[in-house]
Amino acid sequence: MVAHVLRLRLALLVAAGRAGARDRARMLAGLVFVVIGVAAAWAGLLRLRGDDDLAVQAVTVTGGAALVLAAVLAPPLVGDDQLDPRRFRPFGFTSRPLAATVLLAGLCSVPMLALLVIAAGVVVLWLLQGAPALAAVAGPLLGVVTVLLLSNLSGAATAKLLRERRSRELTGLFVLAVLIIAVPVGLFAASLDWGATVPAPLAAASSVLSFTPLGAAWALPGYAVTGDPMGWVALAVALVTVAALAVGWFVAVDRILHTPERPLPARARAGMSWFAVLPATAGGAIAARSLLYWTHDRRYGINVLIVPVAAVLAVVPLLIAGVPFELAILAPAVLIALFLGWLPHNDLAYDSTALWLHIASGVRGIADRLGRLVPIALLAVPTFALVLPLTAVLHGHWSVLVPLGGVIASLFLSGLGFSSIASAAAPYAVTRPGDSPFRQPQRTEGSGITAQALVMFASIAVTAPTAWWAWEAITVDGASAAVALLAGLGTGVLVLIGGLAIGSTVFERRGSALMEFAETAA
Amino acid sequence: MQGESEPPVPGGPATVPEGLVIPPKPPLPAASATVVEESVVVVDDVVATDEEDEAASASALEALWDDARPDDGVDASVPALAIEGLEKTFGGKVAVAGLDWRIEPGTFAGLVGPNGAGKTTTLSMIAGLLRPDGGTIRIHGVDVVAREREAKRLIGVLPDRLRTFDRLTGRQLLTYAGLLRDLPGDVVEARTASLSRALDLTPALGRVVGDYSAGMTKKIMLAVAMIHAPRVLVLDEPFEALDPASSATILDILRAYTANGGTVVLSSHGMDLIERVCDRVAIMAAGSIIAEGTVDDVRGESSLEERFVEIVGGAGETEGLEWLHTFSG
After folding, report:
1. Residues B153, B72: contact at Cβ < 8 Å?
2. What is the pLDDT of residue A441?
């Protein structure tokens, strides 16, 4: 069976290149990417040769931990595992040999081969650093085994948990989550002061990682060189990790082979988009519908487009007026937070008369208010994950993130709170569904200027104290940075909760008035 | 590339969610005979096959009403709808002026009236979309203003000339409506399946509602109105833009609904339709009901249409148009 499965694995590898010109091109591009990545890793590792042992330790441990983490995250992103154990179910194999065979076959894949080559680089590096051969080989080897077991387990879990819910939307959410982690970490790593010595934050991170399942195996050679007795703890962690994962894998395969599979309710799930991802409650449904409209209705997109343009343009007059660059560069992040919080202040009006469905159903105000905020939250979190570190890099000091984070949290969250009230209390006419987003709506009363301005000024007003502390922290001394962050978070959360509560009550009380508004505005 | 993905599980309209498979019932009871009568003459064989289908779907829905209706403590002896002194004014213009109306449970009630008589305003107030300026509305004894959410749970609404979330597909829209009514996810899924089968919407569920024809839109909106198994259905112009076959399907479903104790209140311009299907009819003009009773009571000797024109006073108003008869050419 072993030879058979391995041959199947190789056949799959070769077949990937045969499928057609486009697949072949994609595979070649992937291969080139992997080769370059492996070469870069080798070059980087060999450059460390002769450096301080602690420096080598810091780099190999954090790098190894990142690879282990990638093993967990990759299967849900990539999906479809060709050697999924459940595919062997019809052949009646016994579970243990099959589990071992699938593991072995898993080693014969491009990513795992690349990992083996990189691990070999780590072994060579540590041998050159004078590590005992046993420790230099055992550490990276245990690391590779950990990655192999974890990626298989993660694949099995993905297949089990996501089989019914797999959809474009969910994959998008995963990619988003990875970006939210990867972008700030990458920017942070790039901005570190890579002089002769390893930056202190990285060294600290690696010493923590050495005692976690993520980094323990990779830390073994370093401990062997320095003779640190803590190495035994790392060894224990690494061995227990591998043992636990191995047991987990064999048990998982056994259960996969012995539990009958429920047929998929594919018919009902298909084409449900966000409805299949979000919880089956009124709030979840409203969130799903809002997300669908945000992504399909151009009227929402136009509003969002204005945000980055306005934010970037705001820097120019500041610079012309002579504001120093490191202060002017903080303006876009602040403006983006202000605009994103302000965006949903009229979201209800975009429903036009379709709003009747919410009112006739007696939807709870809180479900309506919260559900409508989900798209903007989903937009704002990655935006801030991108904008904040970028601002810090351009500004020059990462410490600016603390006070700036306070200001942004206050502006954005209180903006959402005030918007929740305004959209139920004072909606104003917008372009009708299906009309050009640039067309002026026919207004029967008021232009909505009051609601727009009130939401914006109210969120600026409640942010004023936070902004003062933040200004103090950035220009005078850093002591008030923490105060600014706490004040900002506190203000934002309080106003958001208050706004949601008031907005919900207003929505429930004013149902009839909202219908009359929708009918006259439509 | 072989084995890229598992083959989709085959499933057509035949795979029904468990617990909702109801054996087909023999053709519908007497009530439906009146409608079928007319169409039988034209397309004999079509009706024969359809009849079996519709009987099955109608009984599937009957089961839906039976198992679905919560123990809401509703007293069946109380009128399904009791309106007293209802008033509504829009910016100085009186739309509804002191309207009284009572409908017993299980009634198929029609509301007719000239354009601008206040029919839509009245139905909107019953549905809880507009708040009355004066008077009371009780649904099975539940005041629609004082106990708003409770009353809304008892009512299903099909409004006229209001938009819907038409960027959703049919299935998404029905799911949306069900979840807004706080139904559990699996119940929504099962009812979506049986409602779309009954209304012959299953093939269109994957399409965006904005692309539906006018008749299809009416049907999906009717499904939206019924998904939470309400006790009273408020339908504003449900047969406008519907072809006769679709009208017959919907009528059968509504009859089965009233036979099970549900109450239907609908407005229509089509007098002969009201005459044919409604138990009771109310004629509305200038914001109040001016004639109400069983269809026979109201129409008397003449047809409902003649009686309507007579009461509302449409005839004899062509004075002043004499110039039209003296052609200038």
Report:
1. yes
2. 66
How far B148 CA lies from chain A's nearest CA (Å)? Answer: 8
When CB atoms are compared, the residue of B171, B180, B193 closest to A272 is B171
What CATH number does residue B161 fall under? 3.40.50.300
Query: Which phi and psi (to 5°) does residue A333 adopt?
Result: -60, -40
CB of B172 less than 8 A from some CB of A: yes
pLDDT confidence of residue B7: 43
* Cα-based distances in Å from A413 to A49, A314, A334: 49, 22, 12
Judge whether residue B147 has pLDDT over 50. yes
For helices B170-180 and B214-226, the axis angle rounded to 10 degrees is 30
Q: What is the 3-state secondary structure (H, E, C) of A96-117?
A: HHHHHHHHHHHHCCHHHHHHHH
Question: For A81, which residue in chain B has the nearest alpha carbon?
Answer: B4
Tokens 């009273």 sit at which residue?
Answer: B232
CB contact under 8 A, B9 and A263: yes
- Give the closest of B2, B171, B179 to A285, CB-based: B179
> Quick check: B18 contacting A, CB < 8 Å?
no
Question: Which residues in B lie closer than 8 A to residue A522 (C-beta atoms)?
Answer: 163
In what order do the strands lie in the sheet containing B155-158?
A: B155-158, B232-236, B263-267, B108-112, B280-285, B288-294
Distance of residue A150 Cα from the nearest chain B Cα, in angstroms = 23
> For the whole model, what pTM was predicted?
0.75
In chain A, residues with a C-beta closer than 8 Å to the C-beta of B192 are 268
pLDDT digits (tens, 9 = 90+) for A229-246: 888 999 999 999 999 999
Which one of B72, B154, B160, B176 would you mutate to disrupt binding with A, by most A Cβ within 10 Å of its Cβ?
Answer: B176
- Residue of higher predicted confidence among A132 and B42: A132
From B314's Cα to the closest Cα of chain A, the distance in A is 29
Residue of B nearest to A266 (CA): B9
Cβ distance of A80 and B4 shorter than 8 Å: yes
In the predicted model, is pLDDT for residue B131 greater than 60? yes
Residue of chain A nearest B226, judged by CA positions: A361
Q: Is B193 in Cβ contact with A353 (below 8 Å)? A: no
A394-446: pLDDT as tens digits: 888 888 888 999 999 999 999 999 999 999 998 888 887 777 766 666 655 55
C-alpha A152/C-alpha A99 separation (Å) is 10
Cβ-based neighbours of B205, under 8 Å, separated by 6 or more? B169, B170, B171, B174, B192, B196
Residue B103 forms part of a structural domain: yes
Taking residues B111-126, report their average pLDDT: 90
Q: What is the ipTM of this complex?
A: 0.78
With vertex at residue A22, the alpha carbon angle to CA A21 and CA A26, rounded to the nearest 5 degrees, is 115
Nearest to B152 among A270, A362, A519 (CB): A362
- pLDDT higher than threshold 70 for residue A311: yes
Interchain pair A356, B167: CB under 8 A: no
Judge whether B172 lies within some domain.
Answer: no
pLDDT per residue over B70-87, tens digit each?
A: 455 556 678 999 999 999
Kindly state whether residue B150 falls inside one of the protein's structural domains. yes
The order of strands in the sheet holding B134-139 is: B93-103, B81-90, B134-139, B142-143
Q: Which structural domain range is residue B142 located in?
A: 81-166+229-312
- Find chain B residues with C-beta within 8 A of A26's C-beta: none
Residue A147: the pLDDT is 92
Highest mean pLDDT among A1-15, A124-138, A485-499, B26-40: A485-499
Per DSSP bridges, beta strands B263-267 and B108-112 are parallel
Check CB contact under 8 Å for A82 and B3.
yes
Quote the mean pLDDT of chain A: 85
Q: Which two tokens stand for residue A97?
A: 């040999």
What is the total count of domains within chain B? 1
